[in-house]
């Protein structure tokens, strides 16, 4: 249980890797269009001139702030409730690996079918983790209320 939250740290660190890649690609791309970056605010159509690979990195960085929020919340819920069997930790690491692969696909070739498949697989990991937590919660409520015998 002492390393249970390590996958959370791993995904946070990966998010900063993608943040770095986003700026490595985006700043030169924007400067190639104009040295006055304020123009991107004043003339939003300029964003259409940013090369695809720079946009893909920014899109991926944004995606790492969407579904992974569920992962973070689930991991802390499971940890705080001491619901930390090894198989949940393996699922957590699988989720992190899937998100890393998803990022690599998105920032390199951006194949939608591959990305969708990875997203769906990651979602299954989260659903299993959430159902485990909910099952434990429901079971505990039923036992504590006397509906079922906990012995």
Structure description:
With 151 residues, the chain is an all-alpha fold. It has one domain (6-144): Up-down Bundle (Four Helix Bundle (Hemerythrin (Met), subunit A)). It has 6 helices and no strands. α1 (6-33) runs parallel beside α5 (86-108) and α3 (52-63) packs antiparallel against α5 (86-108). The two termini are 25 Å apart.
Biggest beta sheet attributes: none
Distance N to C terminus:
25 Å
Could you name the ranges where pLDDT drops below 50 across 5 or more consecutive residues? Answer: none
CATH architecture call: Up-down Bundle
- Give the H and E element order: HHHHHH
Nearest-angstrom radius of gyration? 20 Å
CATH topology: Four Helix Bundle (Hemerythrin (Met), subunit A)
Measured as a percent range, the helix fraction is over 70%
Task: Write down the domain tally.
Answer: 1
Oligomer: single chain
| Global structural class | mainly alpha
- The CATH class designation is Mainly Alpha
Number of distinct helices: 6
β-strand amount: under 5%
User: What would the average pLDDT be, to the nearest integer?
Assistant: 93
Assign an overall shape: elongated
Number of strands: 0
